Structures are given as C-alpha cells and as structure tokens.
Amino acid sequence: MKLITLERYRDLVYAPGSAPTLSTLRRQVKGAKIPGGRKQVGRYYVDLDVNERLTEMAKSNTKRMDELRLDPRLKGLI
Predict the structure, then answer these.
(1) Between 20 and 30 A from 51 (CA), which of 13, 57, 60, 68?
(2) Is the separation of the CB atoms in 52 and 34 below 8 Å?
(3) Is the CB of residue 10 less than 8 Å from the CB of residue 44?
(4) Are 29 and 38 in contact (CB under 8 A)?
(5) DSSP state, 48?
(6) What are the boundaries of each domain within the chain?
(7) Is 36 in a helix, a strand, or coil?
C-alpha cells in the first residue's frame, strides 16, 4: 500500500494547467471515480498500488472488448 496525498496524485497524473481542483478530486474520491481513492482521518489519499492495478485492468478490458467487437464471428452479439 503506497498512499499519496491528492496534491501529489494531481501532480503525478495531470499535466500542468490541465489539473482539476482539489475539491473536484475530493468529489471524485467520494464518488469512487478515482481507483484507490480514500478518506482517512479527514484527509484524502490515493493508494497508488490499487490505482495502477485497477487502471491497467480497465485498459486491458477495454482493449479486449475492442478486439471482440472486430471479430466477425461475434457480429451482432456484442
């Protein structure tokens, strides 16, 4: 478990000038939209290990679904 603050997460993930505000990131943690996001003792953190694992799984699943959509044997099923 590698917890980092939302400030650090924002610096790691977003390009300068395109990063959302901390209040937006807090709302995303509350809404479970940031994988590995959590609130502990009134502070917000992101577990980088969980975040990376879930993000990679989502990318892998999206890639696999795209491959299946192109399979002519499955036309109309997906």
Answers:
(1) 68
(2) no
(3) no
(4) yes
(5) H
(6) 3-74
(7) coil
